[in-house]
What we know:
Elements: E1 28-34, E2 36-38, E3 42-44, E4 53-62, E5 75-83, E6 86-87, E7 91-95, E8 98-104, E9 113-122, E10 125-126, E11 131-135, E12 140-150, E13 152-160
Amino acid sequence: MNADDNPIAGDFAPNDGRWVFDRSGPSKTLTTFVTPVIGKPVTVPAKATAGKRLTVSFPVTRTDAGDTSAPLTSGTIIGAPTIVGRAIGHTQSFTNGVARISFVVPTTAKGKQLTVKVTIKAAPSSRGADAIAFDLATGYIAIVAFRSIGQSTTKVATFLVR
């Protein structure tokens, strides 16, 4: 028990016989890295037009489940739209596996290249429960902890402004 009388450890031992309990800590840790996968952007409207609002949406999935179809539901976004290297004021959001960057394309951008850079950082999280493995014959005990650590990914998309 800790100072607030909350349990901080458990006992999964049998109630008879002798066995060894090693409190020195985990002997094995498995770490899973949550890496975002940023998909192909979709724009609304379909073409970037000078003087008009443009919203660029990127689907974002995760890789830690062994399959990249699961959407990444938590994390942070950094959006950076530019025209010829000059930053454009914008709004951004990341919800339900979709990163969105929205802005008005400058009227002076006609015929120039628009670059939209998006970085997604997965939120660190914990996956699964910690487990204790023990062998009664040898007294071997191991604690296996499953942890997920957030990684980041960046994607750059370019568009010609009409």
